[in-house]
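Contributing new records

If you add data, match the layout below exactly. Sequence lines come first and carry their own label; structure lines follow with theirs. Keep one chain per record. Anything else will be rejected by the validation script.
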Amino acid sequence: MRAIWPFRHIGLKLLSVAIAVLLWMVIAGEETVERGLRVPLELQQFPAGLELLGDVPTTADVRVRGASGTLSRVSPGDIVAVLDLRGARAGERLFHLTPEQVRAPFGVEVVQVTPPTVAVAFEKSASRNIPVKPAIEGKPAAGYVVGRSTADPPTVEVVGPESAVRRVNEALTEPVSVAGAQRAVQETVTVGTLDPAVRVKTQRTATITVQIVPAPLEQTVRHRPVHLRNLAANLTAMVVPSEVDVTLRGNREALSRIQPDDATAFVDLTGLGAGEYTLTVYADSSRDAGVARIEPAVLQVRITSARN
């Protein structure tokens, strides 16, 4: 049997002992400190079939204790508070947050967690299909107007808390620009909802088609006299200019029936006394055609007492 020689490799053994003593002295010589940190709050074991209601804290404040060197090396994310939601039910629930529920590196002791209790409200999850409403911005080229707009798919499925799903009526899209368009515009855009509690389940885009059609025809009736309406008794008025051009808008059939007298221009003098005024001119038209514009749009009116 081979004899064990205790002094074999004595140099290496002495070096190991010296290193161990040195490490112990460094660690033992470090000051123990306590520090407050704000750490992320992680939700685990989320129950199926439930949705969160309202805002849930995303961070927690913890006080940790350890050697000053150890704490100085702690980086964001090394310490995480964990909230176990296993067994939660619909309604408002309270969950305790204790030092044992905080993950921390070796050598770091968690001594306190704030808040010690977290209130979380749950509601049953629900889903339903709602229509997609295209959002349109801009104006087509002159002589054109926006026609019918469609979405493909026409509906999307949304999910969320039952009460929130009930109150949402439509899904919105990113705006589709029709600025300067003379023909149909088609664009694939993102679909979403304004309620942050509700989310689109799968189909998050839609192809929007916007029809651009020629505007209704216009016809100008020129040199229409301006009438004075609601002039008070014992007053007289003079309007400059006394005639305006009225442009009517409608389909071809309606405009073909328009007579000059179908456009009546007027200024409203209700409540005005003697003086000089700059007033907007208005016009009445037949029910088959609308007033597109009046030129000039404002007139100078001078009102005087009839005694003068």
